[in-house]
Amino acid sequence: MEMIKSNKLLRIALTKGRLEKDTVKLFEKLNFDCTELKDKGRKLILQIPNAGIEVVLAKAADVITYIEHGVCDIGVVGKDTIMEMGGQFFELVDLEFGKCRFALAGKKGLSFYEGYTTKTIATKYPNVARKFFEGKNMDIKIVKIEGSVELAPLLGLSNAIVDIVETGSTLKENGLEVYEDIAPISARMIVNTASLKMKQKDIEDLIRKIETIL
């Protein structure tokens, strides 16, 4: 069944949680009426009436899916999700919040790159890890972990992990350390390719407003 979306409203998909809250703060700086967003209850589709914007709340990976399929015009999602999933869309603005980094980490005091055996990497982000080590011409074995990836080297499942690091406190508390930074991460604004043509003025106006306060 074909999805139908409003031609009048800009529909923006926000990643639930911290990025959602930071985006609402950004919208408030633009004098948008965020009453419904702040008192949303269990609603997943919300209105910003004085800006002609409809907001959809979703998980990070789904934000990209909604943008790619054209049911949302704009998405706010972390660079980590973009790097892992890829996709057909335009990445237009670094929103400069949700800052952290991808890093290679493992047991403290060990030299990860020593030896010639194939290393095992535990991660929630297999595509990011694979691309990083391909850039080093290294063969690795990847183990996909859904929960606390820090456990893998402690239990002997992997030589190291590729994960998101913010302060590094979780690593330190578990006897781990960062071996190497991989890439910086922050919230990005992505846009559907067709929407950028059909709603160019509205999208460019919004981006201009955002860039003036960043």
Can you walk through the features of this model?
- The chain folds into 2 domains: 10-98 and 186-213, D-Maltodextrin-Binding Protein, domain 2, CATH 3.40.190.10; 100-185, D-Maltodextrin-Binding Protein, domain 2, CATH 3.40.190.
- The protein is built from 9 helices and 11 strands.
- The protein has helices at 18-29, 35-38, 60-68, 79-85, 126-134, 151-154, 169-173, 193-198, 200-213, and strands at 10-15, 45-48, 53-58, 74-78, 90-94, 100-107, 119-123, 140-144, 160-165, 176-185, 187-191.
- The relative contact order is 0.19.
Task: Give the helix/strand layout.
Layout: E1 10-15, H1 18-29, H2 35-38, E2 45-48, E3 53-58, H3 60-68, E4 74-78, H4 79-85, E5 90-94, E6 100-107, E7 119-123, H5 126-134, E8 140-144, H6 151-154, E9 160-165, H7 169-173, E10 176-185, E11 187-191, H8 193-198, H9 200-213
Parallel strand pairs: 1-3, 1-4, 7-8, 7-9
Antiparallel strand pairs: 2-3, 4-11, 5-11, 6-9, 6-10
Name the features.
alpha/beta, D-Maltodextrin-Binding Protein, domain 2, 2 domains, 6-stranded mixed beta sheet, 9 helices, 33% helix, elongated, disordered N terminus
Report the portion of residues in β strands: 25-35%
The number of distinct β-strands equals 11
| Main beta sheet strand tally, sense and closure | 6 strands, mixed
Helix content: 25-40%
Coarse structural class: alpha/beta
Taking all Cα atoms into account, the compactness measure Rg is 20 Å
Number of helices: 9
Please tell me the CATH architecture of the largest domain by its name.
3-Layer(aba) Sandwich
Strand order of the largest sheet: 2-3-1-4-11-5
